Amino acid sequence: MWTRLAHPGHFLRWTQPVMPWLAGLSGLLLAVGLYLTWFVVPPDYQQGETVRIMYIHVPAAWLGVFFYGSMAISALGTLVWRHPLADVAQRAAAPVGAAFTLICLVTGSLWGKPMWGTYWVWDARLTSMLVLFLIYCGIIALWRTIEDPNRAARAIAILTLVGAVNLPIIKFSVNWWSTLHQPASIMRMGGSAIDPSMLYPLLEMILAFTVLGVTLHLAGMRTEILRRRVRTLTIREAERLDSGAAPAQGRSAAPLGRAVPGL
Amino acid sequence: MLGPHAGFILGAYAFTALVVGGLILHALRDHRAQARALAALQDGTGERP
Protein backbone atom coordinates (compact mmCIF):
# COMPACT_ATOMS: atom_id res chain seq x y z
CA MET A 1 0.00 0.00 0.00
CA TRP A 2 2.84 2.38 0.92
CA THR A 3 4.60 1.75 -2.40
CA ARG A 4 1.33 2.46 -4.22
CA LEU A 5 0.74 5.72 -2.34
CA ALA A 6 4.36 6.78 -2.88
CA HIS A 7 4.22 6.31 -6.65
CA PRO A 8 4.45 9.84 -8.14
CA GLY A 9 1.28 9.42 -10.20
CA HIS A 10 -0.74 8.15 -7.25
CA PHE A 11 0.84 10.78 -5.01
CA LEU A 12 -0.47 13.54 -7.29
CA ARG A 13 -3.95 11.98 -7.27
CA TRP A 14 -4.34 11.39 -3.52
CA THR A 15 -2.81 14.72 -2.47
CA GLN A 16 -5.04 16.81 -4.76
CA PRO A 17 -8.19 16.63 -2.59
CA VAL A 18 -6.13 16.77 0.64
CA MET A 19 -4.39 20.09 -0.14
CA PRO A 20 -7.34 22.49 0.40
CA TRP A 21 -8.17 20.79 3.72
CA LEU A 22 -4.57 21.05 4.91
CA ALA A 23 -4.39 24.70 3.83
CA GLY A 24 -7.65 25.46 5.67
CA LEU A 25 -6.44 23.61 8.79
CA SER A 26 -3.14 25.55 8.70
CA GLY A 27 -5.02 28.86 8.51
CA LEU A 28 -7.36 27.89 11.35
CA LEU A 29 -4.56 26.67 13.65
CA LEU A 30 -2.48 29.78 12.92
CA ALA A 31 -5.46 32.07 13.63
CA VAL A 32 -6.13 30.33 16.98
CA GLY A 33 -2.43 30.36 17.85
CA LEU A 34 -2.02 34.06 17.04
CA TYR A 35 -5.15 34.89 19.06
CA LEU A 36 -3.73 33.02 22.08
CA THR A 37 -0.30 34.61 21.59
CA TRP A 38 -1.55 38.19 21.36
CA PHE A 39 -4.65 38.23 23.57
CA VAL A 40 -4.45 35.38 26.09
CA VAL A 41 -0.79 34.72 26.98
CA PRO A 42 0.41 36.85 29.92
CA PRO A 43 3.68 38.83 29.72
CA ASP A 44 6.67 37.05 31.24
CA TYR A 45 7.66 38.20 34.74
CA GLN A 46 11.25 38.82 33.59
CA GLN A 47 11.07 39.36 29.83
CA GLY A 48 7.78 41.24 29.73
CA GLU A 49 6.12 41.48 26.31
CA THR A 50 9.20 40.35 24.36
CA VAL A 51 8.33 36.76 25.31
CA ARG A 52 5.76 36.92 22.47
CA ILE A 53 8.66 36.46 20.04
CA MET A 54 9.05 32.95 21.50
CA TYR A 55 5.76 31.86 19.83
CA ILE A 56 7.26 32.25 16.36
CA HIS A 57 10.94 31.68 17.18
CA VAL A 58 10.57 28.22 18.76
CA PRO A 59 8.18 26.78 16.09
CA ALA A 60 10.49 28.12 13.34
CA ALA A 61 13.52 26.50 15.01
CA TRP A 62 11.61 23.21 15.32
CA LEU A 63 10.67 23.27 11.63
CA GLY A 64 14.22 24.12 10.54
CA VAL A 65 15.46 20.97 12.31
CA PHE A 66 12.37 18.87 11.42
CA PHE A 67 12.73 19.47 7.68
CA TYR A 68 16.43 18.69 7.73
CA GLY A 69 15.64 15.44 9.57
CA SER A 70 13.04 14.59 6.93
CA MET A 71 15.58 15.39 4.21
CA ALA A 72 18.07 12.99 5.82
CA ILE A 73 15.44 10.22 5.80
CA SER A 74 14.62 11.03 2.16
CA ALA A 75 18.35 10.90 1.36
CA LEU A 76 18.40 7.34 2.68
CA GLY A 77 15.38 6.59 0.46
CA THR A 78 17.31 7.95 -2.52
CA LEU A 79 20.56 6.09 -1.81
CA VAL A 80 19.21 2.77 -0.52
CA TRP A 81 15.89 2.25 -2.35
CA ARG A 82 16.42 4.75 -5.20
CA HIS A 83 12.81 5.80 -4.87
CA PRO A 84 12.07 8.79 -7.17
CA LEU A 85 9.63 10.32 -4.69
CA ALA A 86 12.34 10.35 -1.98
CA ASP A 87 14.43 12.74 -4.08
CA VAL A 88 11.35 14.82 -4.89
CA ALA A 89 10.53 15.03 -1.15
CA GLN A 90 14.10 16.05 -0.34
CA ARG A 91 14.19 18.76 -2.98
CA ALA A 92 10.82 20.21 -1.94
CA ALA A 93 11.78 20.26 1.76
CA ALA A 94 15.00 22.29 1.34
CA PRO A 95 13.55 25.76 0.61
CA VAL A 96 10.84 25.36 3.27
CA GLY A 97 13.39 24.27 5.88
CA ALA A 98 15.78 27.07 4.88
CA ALA A 99 13.01 29.69 5.16
CA PHE A 100 12.02 28.57 8.66
CA THR A 101 15.67 28.41 9.76
CA LEU A 102 16.09 31.99 8.52
CA ILE A 103 12.98 33.03 10.50
CA CYS A 104 14.48 31.34 13.57
CA LEU A 105 17.79 33.21 13.16
CA VAL A 106 16.22 36.64 12.55
CA THR A 107 13.55 36.40 15.27
CA GLY A 108 16.16 35.05 17.69
CA SER A 109 18.36 38.00 16.88
CA LEU A 110 15.48 40.44 17.42
CA TRP A 111 14.69 38.71 20.73
CA GLY A 112 18.35 38.68 21.77
CA LYS A 113 18.97 42.41 21.42
CA PRO A 114 16.53 43.56 24.14
CA MET A 115 17.18 40.51 26.38
CA TRP A 116 20.93 39.88 26.01
CA GLY A 117 21.98 43.31 24.80
CA THR A 118 23.28 41.95 21.49
CA TYR A 119 21.86 40.74 18.18
CA TRP A 120 24.40 37.96 17.82
CA VAL A 121 27.01 35.97 19.73
CA TRP A 122 29.05 33.07 18.40
CA ASP A 123 27.73 30.62 20.97
CA ALA A 124 27.22 26.95 20.11
CA ARG A 125 23.40 27.02 19.62
CA LEU A 126 23.34 30.14 17.46
CA THR A 127 26.36 29.06 15.41
CA SER A 128 25.04 25.54 14.82
CA MET A 129 21.70 27.00 13.61
CA LEU A 130 23.62 29.32 11.27
CA VAL A 131 25.56 26.29 9.99
CA LEU A 132 22.22 24.52 9.37
CA PHE A 133 21.03 27.50 7.30
CA LEU A 134 24.29 27.50 5.31
CA ILE A 135 23.95 23.75 4.65
CA TYR A 136 20.41 24.35 3.36
CA CYS A 137 21.74 27.11 1.07
CA GLY A 138 24.56 24.84 -0.16
CA ILE A 139 22.10 22.03 -0.99
CA ILE A 140 19.75 24.39 -2.85
CA ALA A 141 22.71 25.87 -4.78
CA LEU A 142 24.01 22.39 -5.69
CA TRP A 143 20.60 21.43 -7.07
CA ARG A 144 20.64 24.47 -9.29
CA THR A 145 24.17 23.66 -10.48
CA ILE A 146 23.52 20.07 -11.65
CA GLU A 147 20.94 20.16 -14.41
CA ASP A 148 19.92 16.49 -14.45
CA PRO A 149 17.84 15.84 -11.29
CA ASN A 150 18.67 12.12 -11.30
CA ARG A 151 22.43 12.81 -11.25
CA ALA A 152 22.03 15.55 -8.65
CA ALA A 153 19.98 13.29 -6.37
CA ARG A 154 22.82 10.98 -5.28
CA ALA A 155 25.38 13.75 -4.71
CA ILE A 156 22.91 15.79 -2.69
CA ALA A 157 21.72 12.76 -0.71
CA ILE A 158 25.31 12.12 0.43
CA LEU A 159 25.82 15.81 1.30
CA THR A 160 22.54 15.81 3.23
CA LEU A 161 23.54 12.77 5.29
CA VAL A 162 26.93 14.31 6.09
CA GLY A 163 25.18 17.52 7.17
CA ALA A 164 22.83 15.55 9.45
CA VAL A 165 25.66 15.34 11.99
CA ASN A 166 24.75 18.95 12.81
CA LEU A 167 21.30 17.98 14.16
CA PRO A 168 22.43 16.43 17.48
CA ILE A 169 24.93 19.29 17.83
CA ILE A 170 22.05 21.79 17.60
CA LYS A 171 19.95 19.85 20.11
CA PHE A 172 22.67 19.22 22.71
CA SER A 173 24.82 22.32 22.16
CA VAL A 174 23.20 24.03 25.16
CA ASN A 175 24.16 21.06 27.35
CA TRP A 176 27.64 20.36 25.99
CA TRP A 177 28.90 23.96 26.05
CA SER A 178 28.33 27.03 28.18
CA THR A 179 26.04 29.11 25.98
CA LEU A 180 24.27 32.44 26.25
CA HIS A 181 21.24 30.67 24.79
CA GLN A 182 19.05 29.13 27.50
CA PRO A 183 19.05 25.34 27.98
CA ALA A 184 16.16 23.12 26.81
CA SER A 185 12.91 24.13 28.49
CA ILE A 186 10.19 22.09 26.70
CA MET A 187 11.68 18.62 26.08
CA ARG A 188 13.85 17.95 29.12
CA MET A 189 14.20 15.53 32.02
CA GLY A 190 11.70 16.34 34.76
CA GLY A 191 9.13 17.94 32.42
CA SER A 192 8.74 21.35 30.87
CA ALA A 193 10.10 24.40 32.69
CA ILE A 194 7.47 26.68 31.11
CA ASP A 195 4.28 27.64 32.95
CA PRO A 196 1.16 25.97 31.40
CA SER A 197 -0.33 29.41 30.60
CA MET A 198 2.56 29.87 28.15
CA LEU A 199 3.33 26.24 27.30
CA TYR A 200 -0.03 25.28 25.73
CA PRO A 201 -0.21 28.31 23.40
CA LEU A 202 3.40 27.57 22.41
CA LEU A 203 2.54 23.93 21.65
CA GLU A 204 -0.46 25.15 19.64
CA MET A 205 1.80 27.43 17.58
CA ILE A 206 4.27 24.56 17.06
CA LEU A 207 1.38 22.42 15.75
CA ALA A 208 0.14 25.27 13.51
CA PHE A 209 3.61 25.86 12.03
CA THR A 210 4.09 22.11 11.53
CA VAL A 211 0.80 21.71 9.61
CA LEU A 212 1.65 24.81 7.55
CA GLY A 213 5.15 23.46 6.84
CA VAL A 214 3.83 20.01 5.83
CA THR A 215 1.24 21.68 3.55
CA LEU A 216 3.94 23.76 1.86
CA HIS A 217 6.13 20.65 1.57
CA LEU A 218 3.40 18.57 -0.10
CA ALA A 219 2.61 21.48 -2.45
CA GLY A 220 6.33 21.72 -3.29
CA MET A 221 6.48 17.97 -3.99
CA ARG A 222 3.48 18.19 -6.34
CA THR A 223 5.14 21.07 -8.21
CA GLU A 224 8.47 19.22 -8.39
CA ILE A 225 6.79 16.16 -9.97
CA LEU A 226 5.20 18.44 -12.59
CA ARG A 227 8.57 20.18 -13.19
CA ARG A 228 10.23 16.82 -13.90
CA ARG A 229 7.44 15.81 -16.27
CA VAL A 230 7.86 19.13 -18.09
CA ARG A 231 11.60 18.50 -18.34
CA THR A 232 11.11 14.97 -19.69
CA LEU A 233 8.60 16.11 -22.32
CA THR A 234 10.81 19.07 -23.32
CA ILE A 235 13.83 16.77 -23.82
CA ARG A 236 11.71 14.27 -25.76
CA GLU A 237 10.38 17.03 -28.01
CA ALA A 238 13.90 18.43 -28.55
CA GLU A 239 15.19 14.95 -29.50
CA ARG A 240 12.32 14.57 -31.93
CA LEU A 241 13.09 17.91 -33.56
CA ASP A 242 16.80 17.07 -33.57
CA SER A 243 16.23 13.84 -35.48
CA GLY A 244 14.20 15.73 -38.08
CA ALA A 245 10.98 13.91 -37.28
CA ALA A 246 7.58 15.31 -38.15
CA PRO A 247 5.83 17.52 -35.61
CA ALA A 248 4.65 15.55 -32.61
CA GLN A 249 0.96 16.36 -32.88
CA GLY A 250 -1.03 13.15 -32.94
CA ARG A 251 2.03 10.85 -32.65
CA SER A 252 2.07 8.22 -29.95
CA ALA A 253 4.68 8.93 -27.31
CA ALA A 254 6.31 6.54 -24.86
CA PRO A 255 4.82 6.80 -21.38
CA LEU A 256 6.60 9.29 -19.16
CA GLY A 257 7.40 6.59 -16.63
CA ARG A 258 9.62 4.89 -19.22
CA ALA A 259 11.67 8.01 -19.89
CA VAL A 260 12.10 8.95 -16.22
CA PRO A 261 11.57 6.03 -13.84
CA GLY A 262 8.64 6.66 -11.54
CA LEU A 263 7.34 9.79 -13.23
CA MET B 1 0.72 48.08 24.88
CA LEU B 2 3.91 46.21 23.90
CA GLY B 3 6.27 48.27 26.04
CA PRO B 4 9.67 49.68 25.15
CA HIS B 5 10.58 46.72 22.92
CA ALA B 6 7.54 46.94 20.62
CA GLY B 7 9.76 47.49 17.57
CA PHE B 8 11.58 44.18 18.13
CA ILE B 9 8.34 42.25 18.68
CA LEU B 10 6.53 43.75 15.70
CA GLY B 11 9.67 43.43 13.55
CA ALA B 12 9.91 39.70 14.36
CA TYR B 13 6.26 39.08 13.46
CA ALA B 14 6.48 41.23 10.31
CA PHE B 15 9.57 39.37 9.09
CA THR B 16 7.89 36.01 9.75
CA ALA B 17 4.74 37.12 7.89
CA LEU B 18 6.88 38.31 4.98
CA VAL B 19 8.81 35.03 4.66
CA VAL B 20 5.77 32.77 5.15
CA GLY B 21 3.73 34.92 2.72
CA GLY B 22 6.58 34.68 0.21
CA LEU B 23 6.71 30.89 0.58
CA ILE B 24 2.96 30.56 0.00
CA LEU B 25 2.97 32.96 -2.96
CA HIS B 26 5.97 31.23 -4.55
CA ALA B 27 4.37 27.79 -4.07
CA LEU B 28 1.15 28.91 -5.78
CA ARG B 29 2.86 30.70 -8.69
CA ASP B 30 5.39 27.93 -9.29
CA HIS B 31 2.70 25.24 -9.31
CA ARG B 32 0.54 27.24 -11.70
CA ALA B 33 3.51 27.84 -14.04
CA GLN B 34 4.51 24.15 -14.14
CA ALA B 35 0.91 22.99 -14.62
CA ARG B 36 0.51 25.43 -17.52
CA ALA B 37 3.81 24.33 -19.12
CA LEU B 38 2.88 20.66 -18.76
CA ALA B 39 -0.57 21.23 -20.27
CA ALA B 40 1.00 23.04 -23.23
CA LEU B 41 3.52 20.23 -23.82
CA GLN B 42 0.90 17.50 -23.48
CA ASP B 43 -1.27 19.32 -26.02
CA GLY B 44 1.69 19.20 -28.40
CA THR B 45 2.66 15.56 -27.88
CA GLY B 46 -0.77 14.00 -27.43
CA GLU B 47 0.27 12.76 -23.95
CA ARG B 48 -2.40 11.84 -21.46
CA PRO B 49 -3.11 14.74 -19.07
From TrEMBL, chain B:
<dbReference type="Pfam" id="PF04995">
    <property type="entry name" value="CcmD"/>
</dbReference>
<keyword id="KW-0812">Transmembrane</keyword>
<keyword id="KW-0201">Cytochrome c-type biogenesis</keyword>
<keyword id="KW-1003">Cell membrane</keyword>
<comment type="similarity">
    <text>Belongs to the CcmD/CycX/HelD family.</text>
</comment>
<protein>
    <recommendedName>
        <fullName>Heme exporter protein D</fullName>
    </recommendedName>
</protein>
<keyword id="KW-0472">Membrane</keyword>
<keyword id="KW-1133">Transmembrane helix</keyword>
<comment type="function">
    <text>Required for the export of heme to the periplasm for the biogenesis of c-type cytochromes.</text>
</comment>
<keyword id="KW-0997">Cell inner membrane</keyword>
<keyword id="KW-0813">Transport</keyword>
<feature type="transmembrane region" description="Helical">
    <location>
        <begin position="6"/>
        <end position="28"/>
    </location>
</feature>
<dbReference type="InterPro" id="IPR007078">
    <property type="entry name" value="Haem_export_protD_CcmD"/>
</dbReference>
